[in-house]
Design brief:
It contains 26 helices and 29 strands. It is of the alpha/beta class.
Amino acid sequence: MIPQTLASNRDSTKSHIEILVVEDSSIQAELLRRTLTHHGYTVNIAHHGAHALELVRERLPTLILSDIAMPVMDGYAMCHAIKSDPALKDIPIILLTALSDPEDIIRGLNAKADNYLTKPYDEHTLVARIEYLLANQEFRKEARIHIGIEIFFAGKKHVIDADRRQILDLLISTFEDAVQQNRELVNRTQALQASEESYRALLENTFSGFYRATSAGRFLEINPAYVKMLGYASKEELLAVDIPATLHASPAEYEAFQTRLLAEGAMKDYTERLRRKDGREIIVEANVRVVKDPEGAVLYFEGFVNDITERKQVEIALQQAKEAAEAANQAKSEFLANMSHDIRTPMNGIIGMAELALDTDLTAEQREYLNVVKGSADSLLRLLNDILDFAKIEARKLDLESLEFHLRDSLESTIRTLAVRAYGKGLEVACRIAPGVPDALVGDSARLRQVLVNLVGNAIKFTERGEIIVEVDEVTSEAPASDASPNDSVSLHFSVRDTGIGIPAEKQGVIFEAFMQADTSTTRQYGGTGLGLAISVQLVTLMGGKLWVESNPGEGSTFHFTLSFRRQTDQGLPMMPPELSQLHNTPVLIVDDNATHRNILVETFTQWHARPIAVTSAQAALETLMKAQKSGGVFALTVIDAQMPEMDGFALVEWLARHRLPTGAIIMILTPASQRGDIARCQALGVAAYVSKPVTQSSLLAAIRATHDHPQKPDDRPQAAAPQAIERPLLPLHILLAEDNTVNQTLAIRLLEKRGYAVVLARTGKEALAAWTREPFDLILMDVQMPEMDGFEATAAIRAAERLKGGHMPIIAMTANAMVGDRQRCLDAGMDGYISKPIQAQTLYEAIDDACPLDRSA
C-alpha cells in the first residue's frame, strides 16, 4: 500500500494536470497516453531525454513519466539534468525501471528521481503512484533534506546523494514491487507444480513408454508402460540395468545409436530392436531428443517408445502375401499367354483351312458343314478374346489408345456389321446421332466399338421381335472448364434400347458381374459366358464413364453408358454437300411403318433443310401422292421402306409405275442388308437408288450423290448407292515364310499363293536367316516361337547384318501371342508389322500391302 500523507491544499481538476511521457517506443507511448487520458490527464509525448528537456523548457509539465533505456539521452541523464536546474527541480519524475540490477536502484537515487515503478506494472498501480506524488507535492518541497550516506548494497559500497524522502519512497516502492513479484512467483510456482503433476500423471498413464537416461547409458526416469514393455517387474528393477549391455544386442549398437542422436539432436520415428528381460527381441519405434543445459552440455536423453513388433509382423506378412499374389498373377499371365498361343495355333488351321475350302467348288451339304465349322471356330475365338480381355482388365494391363477418329463412320460401320444378324431374326435396327454431336474426336474407338458390339449383340440375342435402337447425345455440363474437364472435352451419352425379354430388378446388378447371367438355370434358353457385360462395364469405367441399365420384364431393356472424348484440334466448318442443294426447301415423302425410322429420317432431312412429310403405310403414301397431284405439287424425293405390312415397298413402286402416278425426281428403297434379291428387284423396277438398312446420314448421302452423279433417265437402270472399291494391283512379291507348324505352313502358303506371291519356306529361325543370306526377298513373314532360333533372335541377326551392309528387309511378325505388350515387343525387336493368329486373309493382305507399297521407293 502507498502510505497515506497530507493532501495538498491546491484544488485543481485532473484536466489541468499535464503529464509528459518520455518513451522511445511509439507503441508503449501510445498505450500510456490512452491510459492516462482515460483517467482525465492531459498527455504530451517525448521520444527521448533530449526531446523531453526541450519540451520542459518550453512548457512546464505537472509530472514526468519516463522510461530509462532510450537513445540520445537516457532517463537517468534526463532526470539528473532536470533536478539540477533550479527552475525545473520541483517537477515530480517517475522512472519506469525493470530493477534487473541493484546498480539501477542506486543510479535512480543519485539521479534524484521522485518515484520508481517496476515493469511490468498494471494500470491501477501506475495511477496510484501518480496521484500519490501529486497529492504530496508541496509537502515534499518543504520536507526536502539532502543527505549523503554510504551503504553496502548487493556486495558493493555505494554513496547516495538524495533526500530522505526519496530514499523512503524508494524503499516503499521497492518493497511493494517485491511483494507483487513474490505473489506472482507463488502463483507461477503453484501453476508449475500443477503442470508437473499433470505431466507426471500423463507419463504414468500413457500407453507409450517413456524414459530419461544419461549419455553413459543409465536410466534417470521411466514410466510404467516402458517397464511393462520390457518385461520387468518394477521400476526399480529396470532403473538398475545397464542400457548398452542389457537392452541392446551389443554396446557397439548402442554407441551407433548414441552417435547419431548426438549428431542430429533428435530422431523421429527411429526404429530399433530391444531385448526384453526374458531375452525375446521386440521392435520399437522411438521419438528421442537430446536435452542440454544453457552452455550446451548434454544433460540427458529422453524419448517416447512404442512397441511395433506386431505391426512389423503384419507388414512382413502383407509383403509376403503381396509377393505371392504377384507371383500368382505372373503365373496366371504366363498361363494365359501359353493358353492363347496353344489354342490359337490349331484354330489358325481350322479357320484358315475352312475359308480356303469354302472358296472351292462344294456341294450344298459340304458348304453347310464347313460353314458350321467356321462359325464354331469364330465363336471359340470370340470367347478366347473375351477371356483374355477380362484377364487384362483384371490385371490392370489393358492399355487405352488415344487416336483421332470420326464418330459417325465408326458407329455406322459397327452397327451395319451387327445389323445382318438382327435382320436375319426379322428385327429392325436403327442408329441415331443427335444433331450437334461433334464428329471429329480423339479417343479409343476400338474399345468403344467393343462395348457397342457387346451391348447390341446382347440386344439381338435377347430380342425375338421388334427393334433395336442405338442413340448418341451430347451431355451438356453447366460446370466451368477445369484441368479434369477442359474446353476441348466432350461427354457423350450412348444408349442401346431393345424390345426384348427384359431383366428383373433383382438381377440388374448381377448381370454386370463376371460369368453371371440373369438366367443361370440348366434350362436357360440363351447361352453365353456372362463375360460381355463384365468387360463392357470395366472398359467404360477405365475410359472414365459409367454404364447402367433400365429394364422391366417383358418390356425390353435400355443400356446406357457415358464416355468422354477430346475434340480434334481441326474440327473444320460444317459444309452442306452440293448434292443436297436440290432438296433445299423442297418436299420429301417418307414411307415407313417403323416410327423410329420415320423420326430419324425426318430429323435428317430437316437438318438438310428439306420439308419432309412422313406416312406410315403404302396406302397413306398413295393418298398423299394423289393429293399432291391434284394440287400440282411434286416430291423431290420419295423414300420407301421395302418391308411393310399389307403392301410392301416394292408393291408400292410397281403400283405407281402401272398407274403412272408422278412421285418426283427420285425413288429410293430402304432394304435390309441381308435380304437377297432386293438389289435385283430395285434394278428391275427402275428404282433410282437403294439404301441398306440401318439407314444413316452417310448412306443416305451416298445414295443421293449416286443419283446426282448419274441422273435417272426413262431407260436407265439405277446405280448402286455407293461406289465399288477399286482393287489394288498386285505386286509380284518374293516372300520368305518362317513357320514351324505344318498346318500354319500350309495355310499361309495357300493364302500367299492365292494372291500370286512366290513363297520360300523356312522351318526355324536359323533356316530363315540362312535363306535371307542366300537369296533376295521382298518380305519376311516371321513366326515368333520357333525351335533352334526364335523369330526375335532371327530378326535381331538380320538387323545387325543390315547395320553393316545397309538396306532394310520388311519383317512382319506372325504370332499366336495376343497378350498386352506382345505387339509392342515385336515392334521394339525391329519388326515392321504384327498380325495375330488365327490369321485372317484380309488382315494378312493388308499387312503385306502396308509393308510393301505400290511405290517401291516409299
